[in-house]
Amino acid sequence: MVVAFVLCVTDAGKEGEVVDALQAFDEVEEAFVVYGEYDVIAKVNVPELKMLDKFITEKIRSIKPVQMTSTMISI
């Protein structure tokens, strides 16, 4: 199992919308609005690293208000 934290920069005022969209994905265990450089953080669980790449590029980055992501893979 691969656990990663995906940090997102969103359009202003769209943080809650992004959290709601993220929570609809089975791969997302938790998602929160946060203060600071990033607007949203999501804890993601996938079976293997290749699936993490596909999940981020095809699902998270397809959420309209998401401008940028940064991923931290836990060890």
Description:
It is built from two helices and four strands, in the order E-H-E-E-H-E. The radius of gyration is 11 Å and the shape is globular. Helix content is 25%, strand content 40%. The chain has one domain (2-73): Alpha-Beta Plaits (2-Layer Sandwich), CATH 3.30.70.920. It has 75 residues and is of the alpha+beta class. A four-stranded antiparallel beta sheet has the order 2-3-1-4. A hairpin with a 6-residue loop joins strand 2 and strand 3. The protein starts with a strand and ends with a strand. The chain has helices spanning 15-23, 49-58, and strands at 2-10, 28-33, 40-46, 66-73.
Radius of gyration: 11 Å
Largest sheet: 4 strands, antiparallel
Shape: globular
Instruction: Say how many strands there are.
Output: 4
Helix content: 25-40%
Note the main attributes of this structure.
75 residues, 4-stranded antiparallel sheet, alpha+beta, Alpha-Beta Plaits, 40% strand, globular
Short description:
This protein is an alpha+beta fold. Helices cover 25% and strands 40% of the residues.
Which helices and strands, and how do they pair?
Layout: E1 2-10, H1 15-23, E2 28-33, E3 40-46, H2 49-58, E4 66-73
Antiparallel strand pairs: 1-3, 1-4, 2-3
